[in-house]
């Protein structure tokens, strides 16, 4: 039913990546994941880079990387100057996009079931959208639970946290970031992330 | 395979809490040592063997092998669900094992999952947690990887008592099966290790924090507040919320956000 609805939306040309403020968080997730899967299915081994770029262009604007970085850094975020915060967010975005972009083709044949009931927190400004990802062809047919946390800002709903089976892909960095900040300060962390993001220098 | 138990004993003796470390990882120095040992073992033995296994077997064979082991794990899960007095899940496991062992040709085919019988795969560690042992320190097991003292104890006891003896007559066969299980499990993770290395700044704590978050969420366990930095959780304090221009929520006063930010597991 969801699929039919999405297809209809697609046909009407309403499902653009730039979401109108009135869209529900569930719509944001289900439409985007469906579109991303449709794009990934076009991947044929030759156009991998192009498909990756297209998916990135569609998905990246849905994330609020500043908020995401603040969540990853935790209380040390306050100690960082606005300039440092900008740099941190830029480097963290690069790290995440690079990491997950290289794996996205694994999810080519995945099925994503976005649960229609989002859990709304914080006076309706924050929502947790749950989804279940199935990877056929994998020996392990277990479904993977993926949760997205979104908040409603001036540009509509934006994702700032993603959890896979209860493990957050964002707060998983908090100890690593905290450790580096404790040793070498915020600038040390920026430098570490920059080094990590240099191609060919992945540790 | 009594190593986990020995390790547990070591932990009890050592009781070394490193200040400033992860509150659920007091054994960090030892864990890091085992982690780097596992890393080397993986690099030189486990990963090449898993790659060889992938090279010589077609996907349907690997799927069937995985299914057979999953079927055995369902038996183990059944026992644990029964110990936890989880009636419904025990019944599901009974049905899964019966169907897959008969119509599924001794477990080669997993018919139960498409029939709508979900698998939970409970372990002895889950059973311990069910009876109150929820909080447990992180423990890296040799070869087996991330675990906790609780789960490692479960693994040690299960290996010690059964080690497949209820399936195999000969110890040799049981050992061979254990190795094949290890290889087949590692094969499923091929390709993920690059992602892991790309994502992590410190691979040790990336794996630890991911594992603990996953494990705690699965058990529905939230570490006590004293273990978390209390002000970490409020993202709105860190990033000022911009007011939505047209949304009706804008009319509402800035709520003092007490709701948890991260995707909290359902109670």
Automatic annotation (TrEMBL), chain A:
Q: Where is the signal peptide?
A: 1-20
The highest taxon in the source lineage is: Bacteria
The UniProt record lists the keyword Protein biosynthesis: no
Q: Which Pfam families match?
A: MlaC
UniProt xrefs under InterPro entries: MlaC/ttg2D (IPR008869), Tgt2/MlaC_sf (IPR042245)
Q: Is the Cytoplasm keyword given for this protein? A: no
Keywords attached to this Swiss-Prot or TrEMBL record, sorted alphabetically, are: Signal
| Stated name of the protein | ABC transporter substrate-binding protein
Q: What is the lineage of its organism?
A: Bacteria, Pseudomonadati, Pseudomonadota, Betaproteobacteria, Neisseriales
From TrEMBL, chain B:
Q: Where is the signal peptide?
A: 1-17
Q: Where is the sequence biased in composition, kind Acidic residues?
A: 230-240
Q: Does the keyword Iron-sulfur apply?
A: no
Q: Where is this region: Disordered?
A: 221-267
Q: Does the keyword Cell membrane apply?
A: no
Q: Which InterPro entries match?
A: MlaA (IPR007428)
Q: Which residues form a coiled coil?
A: none
Sorted keywords for this record are:
Lipoprotein, Signal
Comp. bias (Low complexity): 244-267
What family does the entry list?
Belongs to the MlaA family.
List the PANTHER family.
INTERMEMBRANE PHOSPHOLIPID TRANSPORT SYSTEM LIPOPROTEIN MLAA, LIPOPROTEIN VACJ-RELATED
- Name recorded for this polypeptide: VacJ family lipoprotein
Taxonomy of origin reads: Bacteria, Pseudomonadati, Pseudomonadota, Betaproteobacteria, Neisseriales
């Amino acid at each position: 039913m969801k699929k039919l609805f999405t297809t209809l939306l697609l046909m009407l040309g309403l499902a653009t990546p730039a979401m109108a403020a009135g869209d529900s968080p569930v719509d944001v997730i289900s439409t985007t994941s469906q579109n991303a899967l449709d794009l990934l299915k076009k991947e044929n081994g030759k156009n991998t880079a192009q498909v990756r770029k297209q998916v990135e262009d569609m998905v990246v604007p849905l994330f609020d990387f500043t908020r995401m970085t603040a969540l990853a850094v935790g209380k040390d975020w306050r100690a960082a100057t606005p300039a440092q915060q900008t740099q941190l967010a830029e480097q963290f975005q690069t790290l995440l996009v690079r990491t997950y972009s290289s794996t996205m083709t694994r999810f080519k044949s995945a099925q994503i079931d976005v649960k229609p009931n989002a859990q709304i927190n914080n006076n309706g400004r924050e929502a947790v959208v749950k989804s279940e990802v199935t990877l056929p062809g994998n020996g392990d047919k277990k479904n993977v639970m993926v949760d997205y946390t979104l908040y409603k800002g001036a540009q509509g709903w934006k994702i700032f946290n993603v959890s896979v089976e209860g493990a957050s892909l964002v707060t998983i960095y908090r100890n690593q970031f905290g450790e580096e900040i404790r040793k070498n300060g915020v600038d040390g962390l920026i430098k570490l992330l920059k080094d990590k993001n240099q191609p060919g220098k992945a540790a | 395979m009594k190593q986990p138990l020995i390790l547990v004993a070591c932990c009890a003796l050592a009781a070394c809490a490193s200040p400033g470390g992860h509150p659920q990882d007091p054994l960090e120095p030892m864990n890091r040592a085992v982690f780097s040992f596992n890393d080397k073992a993986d690099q030189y033995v486990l990963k090449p063997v898993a790659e060889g296994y992938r090279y010589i077997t077609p996907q349907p064979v690997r799927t069937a092998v995985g299914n057979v082991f999953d079927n055995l794990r369902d038996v183990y899960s059944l026992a644990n669900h029964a110990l936890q007095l989880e009636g419904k899940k025990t019944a599901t496991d009974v049905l899964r094992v019966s169907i897959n062992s008969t119509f599924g040709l001794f477990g080669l085919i997993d018919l139960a999952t498409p029939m709508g019988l979900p698998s939970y795969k409970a372990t002895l560690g889950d059973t311990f947690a069910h009876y109150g042992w929820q909080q447990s320190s992180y423990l890296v097991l040799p070869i087996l990887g991330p675990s906790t003292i609780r789960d490692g104890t479960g693994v040690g006891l299960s290996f010690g008592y059964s080690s497949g003896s209820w399936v195999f007559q000969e110890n040799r066969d049981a050992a061979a099966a254990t190795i094949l299980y290890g290889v087949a499990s590692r094969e499923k993770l091929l390709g993920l290790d690059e992602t892991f290395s790309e994502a992590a700044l410190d691979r040790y704590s990336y794996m630890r924090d991911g594992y603990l978050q996953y494990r705690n969420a699965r058990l529905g366990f939230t570490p006590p507040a004293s273990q978390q930095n209390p002000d970490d959780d409020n993202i709105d304090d860190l990033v000022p919320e911009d007011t939505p221009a047209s949304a009706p929520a804008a009319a509402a006063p800035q709520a003092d956000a007490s709701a948890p930010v991260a995707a909290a597991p359902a109670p």
